[in-house]
């Protein structure tokens, strides 16, 4: 049956956009622009889920929740809020809001949270932790079938997956280190897939987005009534992951206090839900990730050294995309296939200029950025091939006007870049050197080397 969603949003344009988009995703959607109308609607119509802005002209989303609690209306509600209002979102969660998303809303994230919330309605969480599905704030269980995998053929990739294959079947704690978007979560999941625990849950917790005061409850769960507004028992990520793997993303972001609790849980393999007197024994494999230098954090006193050794029995270092030359076009085509499917397009590939741009770009946002750029290009492309136009200005700017940031990789492309820099500067060698981010003397040497 079609699920019905009520949007409570006073920004009419945004509300409309959301409504159309969710309609296309197969939901029956209505929208209202204030709390009074929302109440009226909920009283009269079957509603499976509510998406509410925090601040509305008459009252706010929190008032709506309080009213719903009073009426004993148990409809999952997701709060949409700006980052400035995260505190209120936390308050809303304590009052029983299912989840929150930050504005500007990332559609995929929202969709995921909606599906999770609706799924949980069908299988409501029970107080006995063992087999229930946890109420998730930021923890998410990932279904195997959603992931398609590409390892790559570069030296860096081969080495990485060689290590992954070695460490996966063990019970060692793995710390994955790498820049944002390099695929840390993917590798964490791969480790789980290749382990003996692969028939048990994989639970990912984004430590970067848990409000400090909810962290303990997120990890260890809580019992009803343990703090104001803890309306139900909540299963923590550690119990949800029992027998399987827990993935702690952005582990460097945990407060010192939570680090101590985490260390204790890892040492004793036991946890105690907030407000409970009973300890629960857990069997978990820990994989964590960070894009920070934790050794520096230890020196600064913001990360505990004992915890660091606990989580880091084995380190995996994710290569940056720009250092995976041989993989760039493989991934671009892989993401193109994905985008073709998602957008119902039938593009064949990238034309030669577009391929060149992909190869030359420095990819600061790594695989995630590439996936986004390729998807956008797939949407925009008119013909059968993606051309430089659809790849967008980010890529064009670096190659045409800002040669500086371009790695001078091999002789062929280096020669091309030098000629291009000279052309752009009207053969002014000092300026060309500046553009290439090398000193004038080096440029002269290179001109000689290449007979230019
Ligand atoms: N091996 C892979 N095969 C296919 N897609 C991948 C692979 N690795 C990463 N991706 C894609 O790239 C995106 C970024 O990956 P992921 O979220 O794992 O990165 P991350 O390093 O954990 O990022 P962050 O540090 O920002 O959390 C994902 O959306 C995923 O679709």
From TrEMBL:
Residues 4-118 form the Response regulatory domain. Coiled coil: none annotated. InterPro entries: AAA+_ATPase (IPR003593), AAA_lid_NorR (IPR058031), CheY-like_superfamily (IPR011006), Homeodomain-like_sf (IPR009057), HTH_Fis (IPR002197), P-loop_NTPase (IPR027417), Sig_transdc_resp-reg_receiver (IPR001789), Sigma_54_int (IPR002078). The modification 4-aspartylphosphate is found at residue 53. Keywords: ATP-binding, Nucleotide-binding, Phosphoprotein, Transcription, Transcription regulation. Residues 150-379 form the Sigma-54 factor interaction domain. It comes from the Bacteria. This is Two-component system, NtrC family, response regulator HydG. PROSITE patterns: RESPONSE_REGULATORY (PS50110), SIGMA54_INTERACT_2 (PS00676), SIGMA54_INTERACT_4 (PS50045). One of its GO terms (molecular function) is sequence-specific DNA binding.
């Amino acid at each position: 049956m079609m699920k019905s969603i009520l949007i409570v949003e006073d920004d009419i344009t945004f509300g409309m956009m959301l409504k159309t988009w969710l309609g296309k995703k197969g939901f029956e959607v209505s929208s209202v622009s204030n709390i009074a109308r929302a109440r009226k609607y909920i009283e009269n119509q079957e509603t499976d889920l509510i998406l509410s802005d925090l601040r509305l002209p008459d009252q706010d989303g929190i008032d709506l929740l309080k009213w719903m609690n009073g009426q004993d209306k148990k409809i999952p509600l997701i709060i949409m809020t700006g980052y400035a209002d995260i505190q209120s979102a936390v308050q809303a969660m304590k009052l029983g809001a299912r989840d929150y998303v930050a504005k500007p809303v990332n559609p995929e994230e929202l969709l995921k949270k909606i599906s999770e919330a609706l799924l949980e309605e069908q299988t409501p969480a029970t107080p006995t932790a063992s087999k229930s599905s946890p109420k998730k704030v930021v923890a998410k269980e990932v279904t195997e079938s959603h992931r398609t995998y590409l390892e790559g053929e570069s030296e860096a990739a081969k080495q990485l997956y060689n290590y992954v294959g070695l460490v996966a079947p063990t019970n060692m704690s793995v710390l994955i280190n790498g820049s944002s978007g390099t695929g840390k979560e993917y590798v964490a999941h791969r480790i789980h897939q290749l382990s003996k625990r692969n028939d048990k849950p994989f639970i990912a917790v984004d430590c970067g987005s848990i409000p400090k005061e909810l962290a303990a409850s997120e990890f260890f769960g809580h019992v009803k009534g343990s703090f104001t507004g803890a309306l139900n028992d909540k299963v923590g990520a550690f119990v949800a992951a029992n027998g399987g793997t827990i993935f702690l993303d952005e582990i460097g972001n945990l407060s010192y206090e939570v680090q101590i609790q985490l260390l204790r849980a890892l040492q004793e393999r036991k946890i105690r839900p907030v407000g409970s007197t009973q300890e629960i024994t857990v069997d978990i494999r820990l994989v964590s990730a960070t894009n920070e230098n934790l050794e520096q954090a230890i020196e600064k006193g913001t990360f505990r050294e004992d915890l660091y050794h606990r989580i880091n029995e084995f380190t995996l270092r994710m290569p940056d995309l720009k250092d995976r030359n041989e993989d760039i076009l493989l991934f671009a085509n892989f993401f193109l296939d994905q985008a073709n499917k998602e957008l119902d397009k039938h593009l064949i590939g990238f034309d030669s200029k577009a391929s060149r741009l992909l190869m030359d770009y420095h990819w600061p946002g790594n695989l995630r950025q590439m996936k986004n750029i390729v998807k956008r290009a797939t949407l925009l492309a008119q013909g059968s091939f993606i051309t430089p136009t659809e790849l967008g200005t980010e890529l064009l700017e670096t190659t045409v006007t800002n040669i500086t940031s371009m790695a001078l990789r091999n002789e062929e492309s280096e020669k091309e870049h030098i000629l291009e820099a000279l052309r752009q500067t009207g053969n002014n060698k000092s300026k060309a050197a500046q553009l290439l981010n090398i000193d004038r003397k080096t440029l002269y040497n290179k001109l000689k080397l290449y007979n230019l």
